[in-house]
Amino acid sequence: LIRALGFMFLLAFGLTSFGIVIANYVRGFEGFGVFSNAVILPLYFTASSVFPLDPALTRSQTMVLYPEWLVILVEYNPITYAVDAMRGILIGFNQFDPALGFQVVGGMSVLLFAWAMWEFRKN
What we know:
This protein is mainly alpha-helical.
């Protein structure tokens, strides 16, 4: 449970940093709702929480189940790795190595935090 909370914290840290970047550009509260609908919802709906890719299937078998563009979006979505790591920790079913999930989410969080700090200092 502690490891899952750590992944949740790391993901929240990265997404909060991304929110700070966007908040530097948005001048009104209403504009942030547009950001939420345009960025966060597609990230959620293309993560493996909605379309879990079965690790027992090959890539060609997965392409039969889902369109190729969707498989590519799911594989390159950083939220996929966070969801997969938490799923592996909590229920023991994961498609990627949890260390890879930590690297992807940690790297995303560090990059987004650095971007947020740069934007915040610029303004």
